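In this section we walk through a basic example: taking a raw amino acid sequence and producing a predicted 3D structure, encoded as discrete structure tokens. The instruction is simple. Fold the sequence below.
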Amino acid sequence: MKTPLRAILSETLRFHDLNGRSARGAYLWFFLFWNAVMALGLIAIAKIAPEGSGLWLSIALLLGLSAFVAPAGIRRLHDTGQSGGSLFNMFVPSMTFTVVVWLVLTLFEKSVLFGVPAASVTLGETGFLLSILFVLIGYFVIPIGLAIGAGITLFLTFAHISHTLGQLILPSQPDTNQYGPNPNEVPS
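The resulting token sequence is shown next.
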């Protein structure tokens, strides 16, 4: 077994390598180290960053450090016999919810959220009743629906994350699999 420092260094030097396998122990030391670096970076940004730039600096830090962590996660999944693409399955529910919210807001932007619908101007009393219906839908039904959708999205995202994390801590597949030799076995 590698020492923690050697594991962190060897996995970091392979940040560009999406092929092969990574041993569980080496991956876990690497993962803990880089998550500690991310946490310290976010704390530093919160304390030091100029007003209004913290969000963008945090996003840049998370995306930049994810370039180190994601390939190691892909190699770790390879070690358990899984495709590395399943590492990104956790983003499917949140991206789907984001697209649905964008579509709903785009649909109702002109008619409900930013004033009285244009139909009330041209259709008289019928248009006024229609505008009340749009307001009720826009201010009560849609937010409740979006809140329910957000709850479902969070649940599905956590389900995907827990499944992926479970895959990352499984023991290595014995012998050689389709992604390469077992990193825990000494070649003869």
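Looking at the output, two observations stand out. The two ends are 17 Å apart (CA to CA). Residues 94 and 154 are 8 Å apart (CA to CA). In the next section we compare this with other chains.
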